[in-house]
Amino acid sequence: MDTTAVQVRRLVRVYGDHQRGVRALDGVDLDFARGSFTAVMGPSGSGKSTLLSCIAGLDRPTEGDVLVDGDNVTFWAEDARTQLRRERIGFVFQSFHLMPYLTAAQNVALPLRLAGRKADPKLVRTLLEQVGLAGRAGHLPAELSGGQQQRVAIARAFATSPAVVLADEPTGALDTATAKDILRLLRTAVTDLRQTIVMVTHDPVAASYADRVVFLVDGRVAGHMEHPTVDAVAGQLAQLDQLVAAAPAAPAVAR
Length: 255
Fold this sequence. Notes:
Blueprint: E1 4-15, E2 22-33, E3 37-41, H1 48-56, E4 63-68, E5 71-72, H2 78-88, E6 89-93, H3 104-114, H4 121-130, H5 146-158, E7 164-168, H6 176-193, E8 197-200, H7 204-207, E9 212-217, E10 220-226, H8 230-237, H9 240-246
Parallel strand pairs: 3-8, 3-9, 6-7, 7-8
Antiparallel strand pairs: 1-2, 1-4, 4-5, 9-10
Helix pairs in contact: 3-4, 3-5, 4-5, 5-6
């Protein structure tokens, strides 16, 4: 089996005119290994969320390629990309995005139902147990705390055993203590379940739970850090301008 869950090759995304538009991504090359936890960091407008959108097939790259489980999904038709998102990509958002009229168990089962698969009640119970919500299966989102709602969202993201979980600021709406609980939960999913997670964050504490940090500036990879610590990440963030100035320009992609 290929040890790489997701690859992006010379990824370019231009908004507006190809020559004079905004280059949100400018020749990004990255590999995300199976069972790894990667944090993506950078200033506002650096291309972090655009990278996640391109991996998920929500946004079509201007140039370059996205491979999921070895399949080049870059120019798949919309229905195929919708199926990709339903079956092979999990999502965790800052604002939870739970269905307010569905219970915790029904929210966890939703991706399976959308994919046309029967939701096994035992699987749903197991997922809720794994995120510490065994006793909250019948509760609506309004009856849960913010941290509990995010745990439901994480269980939902794992429901289809996806190739990768894309987390966009998953602790941004939580208090410090709850955020650490969520980050420990994500860390455990990587260590114990071999789940692949790519997380966009601005927080050095959140990044310190990852195996690796990728720094983006102006749509380009400005640096990498293995085994990050809070202090090391904070120090690197302060030097991003120098890192990107030293990086070579990305070549154009021929098609």
